[in-house]
């Protein structure tokens, strides 16, 4: 399928290019090249194995041509010998993305591969995240139009990419968004902005044979429909977002082939002004795994996205146990308060002090199992659930406090304390509840106009899993082009293993080159509640990026 589609779209580009060239406006080209490589080495201590190939790489090349009315573009990917963690599904190379887009006045039409998100993504979000190995673009057609002031309409249909192939289910949908403020002069004068939206997505997937036992076969729905409604209000410094989505019966591998409908509800309130910000969020999801292939598991083939109401940490030990959203159902809460103590006050000091407190909690929803049929829940509604009631398991909890303080003209210090509960059994399959306390100190000192030294010291204390960890980092920046980094993450609990790294980074204009050597711990790389397992590896690394 992919080969025939590529030929068709190449022909489309050949037709679109002369149209763009005839345009009165100048044709511009943009693009990028990214290549990440590893020369692997064996290391039995951390479980890293060299494998058959002397070198591994994930490489991408994007090229886009833009004009007044027509844009065309394509992306080539080379993963013939992919990096560790990508080898099972990503191995291959070729044309991974190609599109042609026409935009005239209030109309935009895209043919080929495209990405789209309706609302918060509860029923549709297609995107690319290379670090997670995600590219679930749709191959087909999309139309976006603004027929009236304050009205945006979208319609799309296509097949979803899964690595080097496309799933057979046809995904179609539509979205309408109304900017009420555009129709009200009074709202505009008072700084009130109100947006209403509604979406619908249909998945048409042919019936698969699924048996409860040798004599009873499940009747699989060929059409699964999902709906979403939302409202976003912004009044001065205050913002409020409410959204609700529902999905029809969708028996799949994720839910054990039950026929319970899915739903997700979210309420988010925010307040922001100079020197202060606040955020309160709550979300309840129930059986909202929505894939273009019902028999899949893992991170592939998701049509939708359920954001995790947990903080994405960047410090190494704070991110050691990252949370992944559980699509079968969860209650998730997040609260955050940021405040800046002004300069020349008791807590602000000479330069002021920034403080941020973040709290997140994720819990199971209530499960009241229905009577089993043939010793299996397949073919039943699976369970009942009271909306407001919690289940009996906590999935995750994180309380962290961060302080940013400039102590002198040349020295800045960031401090963080985090108390975390991580249910490893829920997220990874086994391991029980891990309770840890994490301490971070991050200091940056400007030596002179060209040299800056930054250092990190981190400590994770726990009686669970592998025990305590320490982490240290030194980073020397030499303006305008060089940076030297050395780090070590050491398990001083069960394993007594060092994960050391050394990196040299060079920047010149649009070019960025990084070379290094070291060990990488096996674990999960997460962003926004989506995770990819990364196996342990050791060796020389190189990363090159070029944008034009």
Describe this structure in words.
With about 550 residues, the chain is mainly β. The chain has three helices and 32 strands. The protein has a 24-stranded antiparallel beta barrel. β14 and β15 form a beta hairpin. It is globular. The relative contact order is 0.11. The mean pLDDT is about 90.
Summarize the structure.
The protein is built from three helices and 32 strands.
What portion of the residues fall into strands of 2 or more residues? over 45%
Structural class: mainly beta
Largest sheet: 24 strands, antiparallel, barrel
* Number of E strands: 32
Query: Terminal Cα separation, in Å?
Result: 32 Å
Poorly predicted segments: none
**Spatial extent as radius of gyration:** 26 Å
Overall shape: it is globular
Mean pLDDT reading? 91
Helical content band: under 10%
Helix count equals 3
Present the secondary structure layout.
Elements (H helix, E strand, L loop, with lengths): L1 H20 L6 E13 L15 E11 L3 E10 L12 E13 L2 E8 L13 E2 L4 E2 L2 E8 L5 E12 L2 E15 L5 H5 L2 E13 L6 E3 L2 E2 L5 E13 L2 E10 L14 E12 L2 E11 L42 E13 L11 E13 L2 E2 L13 E2 L5 E17 L4 E13 H5 L4 E14 L4 E12 L6 E10 L3 E10 L6 E11 L2 E10 L2 E5 L2 E5 L2 E11 L1
Antiparallel strand pairs: 1-2, 1-32, 2-3, 3-4, 4-5, 5-8, 6-7, 8-9, 9-10, 10-11, 11-14, 12-13, 14-15, 15-16, 16-17, 17-18, 18-19, 19-22, 20-21, 22-23, 23-24, 24-25, 25-26, 26-27, 27-28, 28-29, 29-32, 30-31
């Amino acid at each position: 399928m992919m080969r025939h589609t590529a030929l068709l779209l190449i022909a489309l580009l050949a037709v679109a290019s002369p149209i763009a060239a005839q345009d009165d406006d100048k044709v511009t080209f943009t693009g990028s090249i990214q290549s990440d490589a590893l020369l692997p080495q064996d290391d039995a201590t951390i479980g890293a194995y060299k494998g058959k190939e002397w070198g591994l790489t994930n490489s991408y090349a994007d090229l886009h041509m833009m004009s007044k009315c027509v844009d065309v573009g394509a992306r080539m990917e080379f993963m013939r010998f992919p990096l560790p963690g990508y080898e099972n599904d990503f191995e291959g190379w070729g044309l991974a993305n190609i599109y042609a887009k026409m935009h005239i006045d209030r109309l935009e039409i895209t043919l080929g591969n495209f990405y789209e998100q309706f609302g918060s993504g509860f029923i549709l979000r297609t995107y690319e995240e290379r670090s997670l190995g995600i590219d679930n673009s749709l191959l087909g057609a999309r139309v976006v139009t603004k027929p009236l002031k304050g009205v945006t309409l979208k319609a799309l249909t296509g097949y979803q990419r899964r690595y080097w192939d496309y799933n057979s289910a046809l995904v179609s949908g539509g979205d309408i968004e109304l900017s009420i403020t555009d129709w009200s002069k009074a709202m505009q004068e008072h700084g009130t902005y109100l947006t209403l939206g509604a979406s619908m997505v249909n998945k048409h997937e042919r019936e698969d044979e699924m048996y409860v036992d040798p004599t009873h076969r499940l009747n699989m729905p060929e059409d699964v429909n999902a709906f979403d409604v939302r409202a976003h209000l912004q009044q001065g410094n205050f913002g409020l977002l409410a959204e609700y989505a529902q999905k029809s019966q969708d028996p799949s591998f994720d839910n054990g082939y039950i026929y319970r409908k899915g739903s997700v509800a979210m309420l988010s309130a925010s307040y922001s002004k100079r020197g202060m910000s606040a955020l309160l969020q709550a979300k309840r999801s129930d059986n909202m795994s929505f894939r273009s292939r019902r028999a899949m598991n893992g991170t592939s083939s998701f049509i939708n996205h359920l954001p995790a109401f947990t903080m994405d940490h960047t410090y190494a030990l704070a991110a050691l146990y990252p949370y992944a959203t559980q699509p079968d159902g969860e209650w998730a809460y997040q609260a955050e308060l940021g405040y800046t103590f002004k300069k020349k006050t008791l807590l602000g000091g000479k330069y002021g002090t920034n403080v941020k407190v973040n709290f997140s909690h994720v819990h199971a929803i209530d499960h009241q199992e229905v009577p089993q049929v043939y010793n299996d829940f397949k073919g039943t509604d699976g369970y009942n659930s009271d909306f407001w009631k919690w289940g009996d398991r906590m999935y995750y909890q994180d309380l962290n406090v961060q302080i940013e303080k400039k102590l002198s003209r040349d020295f800045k210090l960031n401090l963080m304390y985090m108390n975390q509960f991580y249910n490893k059994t829920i997220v990874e399959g086994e391991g029980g509840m891990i309770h840890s306390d994490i301490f971070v100190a991050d200091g940056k000192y400007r030596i002179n106009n060209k040299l800056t030294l930054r250092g990190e010291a981190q400590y994770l204390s726990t009686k669970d899993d592998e025990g305590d960890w320490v982490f240290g980092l030194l980073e020397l920046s030499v303006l305008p082009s060089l940076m030297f980094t050395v780090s070590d993450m050491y398990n001083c609990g069960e394993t007594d293993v060092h994960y050391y790294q050394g990196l040299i980074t060079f920047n010149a204009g649009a070019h960025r080159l990084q070379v290094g050597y070291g060990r990488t711990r096996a674990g999960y790389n997460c962003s926004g509640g989506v995770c990819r397992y990364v196996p342990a590896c050791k060796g020389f690394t190189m990363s090159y990026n070029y944008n034009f």
